[in-house]
Amino acid sequence: MTTILDTTTGQPATGTTPPGVRRPRIRLRAEPGRSRHSTRTKALVISGLVLFTVYSLAPVWWLIVAATKSRGELYTSNGLWFTDINLWNNLKDLFTYQDGIFLRWMGNTLFYGVVGTAGMTLVCVACGYGLAMYEFRGRGFLMGCIIGSFLVPGALLTIPSFLLFTDLGMVDTATAMIVPSFFNAFSVYLAKVYAEGAIPPELLEAARIDGAGEYRIFFQIGARLMSTGAATIFLLGFVGMWNSFFGPLVFLRSSEKWTVMLGLYSWLKVKTDSSVDLVSLVVVGSIISLIPMVILMLSMQRYWRTGVTLGSLK
Predict the structure, then answer these.
(1) Gap between the Cα atoms of 124 and 126, Å rounded
(2) pTM, rounded to two decimals
(3) To which H or E segment does residue 156 belong?
(4) 130: pLDDT confidence band, cut at 50, 70 and 90?
(5) d(C-alpha 93, C-alpha 288), whole Å
(6) Which of 8, 114, 157, 297 is the most exposed, fewest CB within 10 Å of its CB?
């Protein structure tokens, strides 16, 4: 005698199965359209990610390969694969051309980026914190003005800014690059949104009851809870400052005060020199200019990792 289970209830079914008679097995099948749809979706997602990766890394790969080639091989050999490695000579030419002015441009860009972005992070985080944590008259109108400023193209403010900086004597100075970068409407909006989700108002009320002042609350509580948002603002601002071209082109005159992007553009316009191929120097300089941003990205990963962990514990 063989006892069977009812497929609907999972309990032993009544009755017996005669000897020699095999009861058919019942298999639960998934919906036929669902499996095909899932496989098709995965294939499309993977294909899109592969195409995006190739599109993003192909120019970087070309730069790496081109930076290792000599002047003749840069124009005659396959642009996507190595030939003779000439990277050391290219670096030597880059750092010695015009008395090492490329290193001066790198130092200028690093100075403008670090000082300007640090000031912007402090100002924007404080503004976003104030808009999120305090109730005051006109807050909605002020926030509307900040959002409305997104619609104003930056190039539209070039002529008024140039006239203002000329009257103040700021043209062709580091101040013309640093001070305007302190104010960024999008960073204020980003800081406000992050502060609303990261800072509990009850924590601030408890600190006020304990006798803490508003500045102490901001620097010891608010700024620490907004560290992930501040790191994001700093990174976006630094990348924007490092890659800025239009501002230095308008406000800087002396080549000793140029940024690295403006300097490489000036070499690309000339292209040839009696002693060196400037196109090769532009290629190698482009690779070197990527290194600070890569280092910054890797060094600030811990802030995002900490922010994700903090959000999971709330």
Answers:
(1) 5
(2) 0.79
(3) none
(4) very high
(5) 13
(6) 8
